[in-house]
UniProtKB/TrEMBL annotation, chain A:
<dbReference type="Pfam" id="PF00071">
    <property type="entry name" value="Ras"/>
</dbReference>
<dbReference type="InterPro" id="IPR005225">
    <property type="entry name" value="Small_GTP-bd"/>
</dbReference>
<dbReference type="InterPro" id="IPR050209">
    <property type="entry name" value="Rab_GTPases_membrane_traffic"/>
</dbReference>
<keyword id="KW-0968">Cytoplasmic vesicle</keyword>
<keyword id="KW-1003">Cell membrane</keyword>
<keyword id="KW-0449">Lipoprotein</keyword>
<comment type="similarity">
    <text>Belongs to the small GTPase superfamily. Rab family.</text>
</comment>
<keyword id="KW-0472">Membrane</keyword>
<dbReference type="GO" id="GO:0005525">
    <property type="term" value="F:GTP binding"/>
</dbReference>
UniProtKB/TrEMBL annotation, chain B:
<feature type="region of interest" description="Disordered">
    <location>
        <begin position="1"/>
        <end position="23"/>
    </location>
</feature>
<feature type="coiled-coil region">
    <location>
        <begin position="393"/>
        <end position="454"/>
    </location>
</feature>
<feature type="compositionally biased region" description="Acidic residues">
    <location>
        <begin position="1"/>
        <end position="20"/>
    </location>
</feature>
<feature type="compositionally biased region" description="Polar residues">
    <location>
        <begin position="237"/>
        <end position="246"/>
    </location>
</feature>
<feature type="compositionally biased region" description="Basic and acidic residues">
    <location>
        <begin position="220"/>
        <end position="234"/>
    </location>
</feature>
<feature type="region of interest" description="Disordered">
    <location>
        <begin position="220"/>
        <end position="259"/>
    </location>
</feature>
<dbReference type="InterPro" id="IPR007998">
    <property type="entry name" value="DUF719"/>
</dbReference>
<protein>
    <recommendedName>
        <fullName>Protein FAM114A2</fullName>
    </recommendedName>
</protein>
<dbReference type="Pfam" id="PF05334">
    <property type="entry name" value="DUF719"/>
</dbReference>
């Protein structure tokens, strides 16, 4: 569960073909767990996690895990709008999923307009390739694609937790930078960035001190 | 008897001339009169007695209802009056009850006696009560007299600061009814410092001797000291006895007192007794005033209060006192002449003796308090640092504010820890599901509007009719007070509704969630469960159930939209069923938690718990309205399916 106190909330959306591993990536990131088998996502699911950036600002990531199935496409499209960042997820062992990335990306761009979302290209299931599986998307190719579009690229394994944190941290930091540079603002009618429960200076210490006595009974 | 003017007091002669006038004068005396080297001391003393202005006392009740008694001695000055006043107060029976709770007493400086105490009687914590009880017991045992102050929700401040040198007593009394504050400050300066035996009894005896031999000095001292009383009265450092001493409230004087005065010698006995009586009455008057409610006030501010006001008050008091003691009046004049002379001669000694006594009291108080409060030394050290600050009372006030702030903060922290419903609803993704459902709903509305705009004529009206029909289908039945349906029934109803809707969702998770909560509730040991945690659990459960409900509504919306064949009527009917069933479940949950909370109710926590119960029902209503909102959001989804 997410701690109640955070300074900012970023809404990120995960998009990509079905079964590329979006939900597993999120479960790994938020729970640290990995499930070999999982049901396909219906519509959209939600995850959340708190991340602290370098200057100590606590950021709550609200993660929208969209269904990759084609039948939900029209529905998930309506969820894009309020996102400030998008993770373009593909399976490194699934060429088609990588080939569809430009479609996902342009779709997201269009829906999120006029805002300019932060993208990160995430290749999943690196562990499969490491264990003798057939890698269909060379790392260099993905990197080139990312460079071409000016986005980050990360290859991950939700099973082993490789670079999962890194993928989300990159987006978060980039968004935070843009917030600080003034490109992103908290706006009415757009939920990409929200302010959270602001910590009151001076209360922090008390909170920490008070913590140990918290769970006394029941 | 005419009410005395302040001017009368200024001249000792006048006062002495008429016996009858004396009592009045005594009452009317102004502090300023005291300043003058008049032999009027006696009279003034009596007044002094009523109010121990010598000290500034503040008792501040902090979070824990702790009261700080701070005694600070400034300068080498000695205050005599204060001692006497305290004696008198202690002597008198029934005068003082300790209402105030004193947990802490800080003494700033032993050597220098300024007593400052701020009393703030507010809460009634158990430990305080205990302290009180102990105090009462102690005071009873050590003397028949009850010592203490009867101050309720008031603040009494007494401040002593060194003023003019040369043995005269300056007494200021300020009563402010409007503000309900009483501040009295007495400033006594004396060149000499007498060494006083620490033994209280001895001390008092010494004083008596001094009085007797040197003069019939200040009525103050004598006043308060009667033989019997002296013997009975001991300055015991028990918090109870200490506390009361500072308090200026003298309710009554013991009947024996008049007899006791005989011991003093032939001089001025009657005067003294009269004065004593007067003092008593004044004191009682003051007590009344004080009890009516005193608010804490800045001593400085109070100091600025019109002298006129003070006088008026005193006059009125004087009048009242007059009526109280008419029988005593005739004897007043006796020995006055002697007294006047003696006063002048021995003023210094008396005062110094009194000061020493005060100092002793302070030290003893410290000792006692330190025994009970290990942290006192720290506080003392802390206060000592700030000693240089101009006004002691300000320090105390700041300390009080600090304490209040701390309390507020701790309450805030507690509230922070206890997440509110909205936060929990958000944590369980209820809010975001609702938002997503809203997005879906909007999308469907847009679709419908586009469609509507493309239609005309008959098609258009038909379309509108369909829309309205669906809306009607989704109207919730009037809340028919269903007799509590069981959890099993709820489960069945939900299952049936889902089947009719023909979407692949399940309320198993939601039901399991509630059943777990129910198990937890049933296994709950009410003896160890804090009502606040129980309340928190209730809110948590409600938020969780509602969040799960939101999730399912959201999923239903999504699945309906991608469903191949729609059957709008069935869907609408099922959704209404789901909605009513879920709100019923919320009601059951709220009732169950409230029932548990209710069992925690006892007299002391009655209000608090009923507040918590109200909150549970409030959040339950909140949950229900979220659920009903969700149904409304689904209407466009249903409508899209119908066209």
């Amino acid at each position: 569960m997410v701690e109640p106190i955070f300074d900012l909330q970023f809404r990120l959306i995960l998009i990509g073909d079905s079964t590329v591993g979006k939900s597993c990536l999120l479960k790994c990131f938020t729970d640290g767990k990995f499930a070999e088998l999982s049901d396909p996502t219906v519509g959209v699911d939600f995850f959340a996690r708190l991340i602290e950036v370098d200057d100590g600002t606590r950021i709550k990531l609200q993660l929208w895990d969209t269904a990759g199935q084609e039948r939900f496409r029209s529905i998930t499209r309506s969820y894009y709008k309020n996102s400030v960042g998008a993770l373009l997820v593909y399976d490194i062992c699934n060429r088609a999923s990588f080939d569809h990335i430009p479609v996902w990306m342009s779709e997201a761009r269009r829906q999120i307009e006029p805002h300019r979302p932060v993208f990160v290209l995430v290749g999943c299931k690196v562990d499969l390739a490491e264990n003798g599986g057939q890698r269909e998307v060379p790392k260099e190719e993905a990197k080139l694609f990312a460079q071409k579009h000016g986005i980050f690229h990360v290859e991950t394994s939700a099973k082993y937790g490789w670079s999962v944190e890194d993928a989300f941290r990159k987006v978060t930091e980039e968004i935070y930078n843009r917030v600080q540079s003034g490109e992103y603002k908290v706006e009415d009618g757009w939920d990409g960035i929200k302010t959270g429960f602001v910590r009151q200076k001076g209360l922090d210490i008390n909170l920490v001190e008070a913590e140990p006595t918290k769970s006394s009974c029941c | 008897m005419d009410t005395s003017d302040s001017e009368c007091f200024e001249s000792a002669d006048e006062d002495i001339q008429s016996d009858e006038e004396l009592p009045k004068k005594v009452f009317n005396k102004d502090c300023q009169n005291l300043l003058k080297p008049n032999p009027n001391y006696e009279l003034e003393a009596s007044e002094t007695l009523c109010d121990p202005r010598t000290e500034e006392s503040k008792i501040t009740r902090q979070n824990d209802a702790s009261i700080k008694l701070e005694i600070a001695v400034k300068g080498d000055n000695e205050s005599k009056n204060s001692n006497k006043a305290s004696h008198s107060s202690s002597e008198t029976e029934d005068i003082c009850q300790v209402t105030s709770k004193i947990n802490t007493i800080n003494v700033i400086d032993d050597s220098k006696p300024v007593l400052s105490r701020k009393e703030n009687v507010e809460g009634d914590l158990c430990n305080i009560k205990q302290v009180e009880q102990e105090t009462v017991k102690k005071s009873r045992s050590c003397a028949k007299t009850k010592l203490g102050s009867k101050i309720s929700k008031d603040t009494v401040k007494f401040e002593i600061t060194p003023e003019k040198k040369k043995s005269k007593v300056v007494e200021k009394e300020k009563l402010h009814k409007t503000e309900n504050n009483i501040i009295s400050s007495v400033q006594i300066v004396e060149n000499e410092k007498l060494k006083v035996d620490n033994d209280d009894q001895n001390l008092w005896d010494d004083e008596e001797l001094d009085w007797g031999t040197e003069t019939k000095l200040e009525s103050d001292a004598k006043h308060n000291i009667s033989k019997d009383n002296t013997e009975e009265y001991k300055f015991q450092p028990s918090p109870s006895s200490n506390t009361p001493q500072f308090n200026p409230h003298i309710g009554k004087k013991s009947e024996n007192q008049s007899d006791n005065w005989g011991a003093w010698g032939s001089w001025g006995v009657s005067v003294l007794s009269t004065a004593t009586q007067s003092v008593s009455s004044i004191t009682s008057q003051l007590t009344n005033v004080i009890e009516t409610g005193l608010g804490a006030a800045d001593p400085e501010e109070l100091a600025r209060i019109d002298r006129e006001e003070k006088r008026e008050l005193k006059e009125s008091l004087g009048k009242e006192c007059e009526q109280d003691i008419p029988s005593e009046a005739p004897s007043v004049g006796f020995g006055l002449g002697n007294l006047v002379k003696l006063v002048e001669n021995t003023g210094n000694k008396v005062i110094s003796g009194g000061l020493d006594t005060l100092e002793t009291i302070g030290k003893k108080t410290m000792e006692v308090l330190q025994e009970g409060d290990p942290g006192l030394k720290k506080k003392r050290a802390f206060l000592k640092i700030e000693q240089n600050k101009p006004v002691l009372s300000q320090i105390l006030r700041e300390a009080k504010e600090r304490a209040e702030n701390e309390r507020n903060i701790s309450e805030e922290v507690y509230m922070k820890k206890m997440k509110n419903y909205e936060t929990l609803f958000d944590d369980h993704h209820g809010l975001v599901h609702l938002e997503a459902l809203e997005l879906l709903s909007k999308q469907c509305e847009i679709k419908l509007r586009n469609l509507q705009n493309s239609l005309n004529g008959e098609q258009y009206t038909e379309f509108l009719e369909t829309m309205d029909q669906i809306k009607e289908l989704c109207e919730l039945p009037d809340e028919e007070e269903e007799d509590q349906i069981s959890i099993l029934e709820i489960r069945e109803k939900l299952k049936k509704a889902v089947t009719e809707m023909n979407v692949q969702i399940s309320y198993d998770k939601l039901m399991t969630n509630w059943e777990e909560s129910e198990v937890w509730l049933n296994a709950l040991n009410m003896n160890i469960c804090d009502e606040k945690e129980l309340h928190q659990q209730a809110i948590e459960t409600l938020a969780q159930l509602t969040s799960l409900a939101m999730e399912q509504f959201h999923k239903i919306g999504e699945l309906l939209l991608i469903k191949d064949r729609r059957s709008t009527a069935d869907e609408a009917d099922s959704l209404v069923q789901v909605t009513t069933t879920l709100t019923a479940l919320i009601g059951i949950a709220a009732a169950k938690f409230s029932e548990k909370l209710n069992s925690k109710i006892c007299e002391s926590t009655n209000k608090e718990i009923s507040g918590l119960i109200t909150n549970v029902f409030f959040e339950a209503a909140n949950s229900s309205s979220y659920i009903q909102d969700a149904l409304q959001l689904l209407i466009p989804v249903l409508q899209v399916g119908a066209v």
